[in-house]
Amino acid sequence: MRAFRRFPDWLRRSLPENSSERTYAILNKYRLNTVCKSAMCPNCQECYAEDTATFMILGNVCTRHCGFCAVRTGQGELIRQDEPERVAFAAKELGLRYVVITSVTRDDLSDEGAAHYANTVYAVKREIPESRVEVLTPDFHSREELIRQVVEAGPEVFNHNLETVERLQRTVRPQADYQCSLKTLEIAKRLGSKRITKSGLMLGLGETVPEILETGRHLLSVGVSILTIGQYLQPNTQSLEVQEYVTPEKFRDLSRKLMAMGFEKVFGGPYVRSSYHARETFTDLGEEKTFGTAETNTGA
Fold first, then answer.
1. Is residue 11 domain-resident?
2. Residue 7 domain flag
3. Number of domains in the chain
4. What global pTM score does this model have?
5. Quick one: CA torsion of 41, 45, 48, 50, rounded to 10 degrees?
6. What interhelical angle do 248-261 and 209-221 show, nearest 10?
7. Residues 26-75 pLDDT 10s
8. CA 92 from chain center: how many Å?
């Protein structure tokens, strides 16, 4: 059992004034999972109160066990073939124009869930033609044929998180591989050069500033243009302990340094998560930078 560290003042905040009941009701109506709830995201109530959520497809059980994550691990669940349409209907009812789709990792499937990802993107694009879609994917073991299926469905943003620096990968993501994740991002960018690729890091796990900047250089070398950096918060007593609570000032300094290295957008702060305010981050870059402006994919 690992004890929780006491929060510093800058991590204390009040609950949102708006109700989150409408979002809960729509998600329940369409029997959908969200990473917000399953991963115990600290921003869940805020986002739900704003009628937004990050849909988590391919079940609610992950085949990998990461030291930072609260999502249940075990044998993958049965895939529901109507899930893509249910995601699309829920997104439309919520009024979303920027839809973020993530998933558990499904190493048990021959295609690791790539076709289901593609079908979900297609369904959202059909139901909400004006929408923009961001996918936050597993690494797919850097298999180009699987990454291609997702990319060709037409998401404007392809996101895959490194989560932490190279030295800490085996502790934080014991069943993943740093170079494999970089390769996944490189392939996604190569398959669609105009598409935005994105990644995220958690701070407070024992990383150093030089290691963070080195990770930034690695991400830039494979074409990543958006980076999110946020504070790791221990979701339960079985998860890794927080080694450091990073101050807002340090987040600002790191964001400035990373931007100076060449990223088009660095979104950093204690409560920043990969899909937190994803629409605003995307909008900041401008529509002309996106893959979906000139081409439309509506196939299945």
1. no
2. no
3. 1
4. 0.92
5. -120
6. 40
7. 999 999 999 988 888 888 988 998 999 999 999 999 999 998 998 999 99
8. 20
